[in-house]
Amino acid sequence: MSVQQVKFTKEDKKSLQHYFRIADTIADLIGPHCEVLIHSFESLENSVVKIVNGHHTGREIGSPITDLGLRMWSEFERTGEVSPKCYFTKSSDGAMMKSTTCVLAGENGKAIGMLCINMNLSHPFPEIMKTLMPDVSVSNFLENEHFSTSAGDVIYQALEQAIHEVDGDSSVTPKGRNKAITKHLFDNGIFELKETTTQVAEKLGITRQAIYKFLREFKSETTEILN
């Protein structure tokens, strides 16, 4: 089956643009030695519509799709699979690249483009590793994140963190402690989890009605600020 340019709808254009943030996120995670780009199937001669770190291949917005990209798209049209899933290739200047490609879906699941990730392996490995490690010269370079297997554990960890921070704040009075802890959890979106109110009430030794009262106050304050 031969491939052909896709006739885009407005929804297809919006769908493809939504993937742009994913490209930025991947490039930010892996670092400057990684090129991330999005091809659009609307115009194969000018298929690159998003690119980060394009200096690795010399491409820019408006560059065409590659021959391998066309073969992979053709394979996807025939089988529903992208092959190869991960591969090695060389850039025009001879740099070794480890790459992977994913076909992007638009309206009704039709293929509208490709997300391509190219890791440049030609740089000294310690240099690459340096971009993947935290900068220990920066204070508090580690973010607190707990990888939980249940919603209850997420609530527990967030509650313990809120209690620790509020109890360490000398400006919070004993009378205002429970409200401050609840506000901390509210600001961090923890009350979007269903069992939060029950767990917080039990831990703080107050009623769920008291928690609901705090939440109404917080939501009212937020509405006033927005208005």
From TrEMBL:
Domain YheO-like span(s) in chain numbering: 16-124
Domain Transcriptional regulator DauR-like HTH: 159-216
Coiled coil residues, start to end: none
InterPro entries: DauR-like (IPR039446), DauR-like_HTH (IPR039445), YheO (IPR013559)
Protein name per the record: Transcriptional regulator
Species the sequence originates in: Vibrio breoganii
